[in-house]
Design brief:
This protein is an alpha+beta fold. It has helices at residues 6-16, 31-34, 53-66, 79-93, 97-101, 155-180, 187-191, 262-267, 322-330, and strands spanning 45-47, 69-73, 114-116, 131-138, 198-206, 218-221, 227-232, 238-242, 245-248, 256-260, 277-279, 287-295, 301-302, 320-321. An eight-stranded mixed sheet has the order 1-2-10-7-12-5-4-3. Strands 6-11-8-9 form a four-stranded antiparallel sheet, with no helix packed on it. It is globular. The two termini are 33 Å apart.
Amino acid sequence: MEVERVQAIASLSVTGGSIPTEFIRPETEQPAITTFHGPVPEIPTVDLSDPDEESLVGSIAKASQEWGLFQLVNHGIPSEVIRKLQAVGKEFFELPAQEKEVYAKPPDAKSMEGYGTKLQKDAQGKKSWVDHLFHRIWPPSCINYQFWPKNPPSYREANEEYAKHVRDVAEKVLKLLSLGLGVEGHVLKEAVGGEELEYLLKINYYPPCPRPDLALGVPAHTDLSTITILVPNEVPGLQVLKNDRWIDAKYIPNALIVHIGDQIEIASNGNYRSVLHRTTVDKNKARMSWPVFLEPPPEFVVGPLPQLVNEDNPPKYKAKMFKDYSYCKLNKLPQ
């Protein structure tokens, strides 16, 4: 079956100035109508180099309770490592279509890995203006190099280098989140997978769109993950729901955007919240992002931390194997 990539649709749409109807969102979702343009609070920025750990724990915990996301600066990943990650990803998406199709996700695959386009339409029969590439970058036992592009030749090196650094950031963030719950620094990470946490990289490619007022790159969702650590490019597009208003995340060069995902909301028994977010697209420029989803192994059971549950604070979530949670969420079944 020939799959139609959004990149190909976009190149045809540019000349006509219109987009196929399946990409036009309902009015309740159209960015032109639903984006809030008044004065808005800034998404919190956290400086990971702050030597005062208590202050750092406080700012990360507050951001995770009130927003479910924060921008991380002075995180220790060299800007050159991020630049190379972005350069090789961009080069891959600029390859001829047939070269990219070599890495296409097999039609019957159980895994998310590979190059693809979300095929299923949503409940309204609508599609998202995005193509993607998924592959795991850690631990080594989970890596399937079949889905790592061989062109550009430096792709593997750039991704392995980034993986090494992003793991250091993740360790620090999970420790701070754990301390923010009033438990020891190692507790939260162990409760969501410990050393077996899987790091799944996704490259999102949102081609220029002649009607950015009508389409979305990704509709509103929360992430399945524990946390998501995202590198954006310079084209803004991330929006966060705050006080029932969709607000734009401003671009901070070299910052990482950290999302609290569903598994941390569950493990924290709702103290931290998984952030509802979506992506808009741009008329003239391609937007790209590189989220890394930290996921428990499929059979790992995540539930509220016992230290946070008592008679006054009963568990708000069921303990579930991650694969069962994912299945229910992806198939829109109750948890």
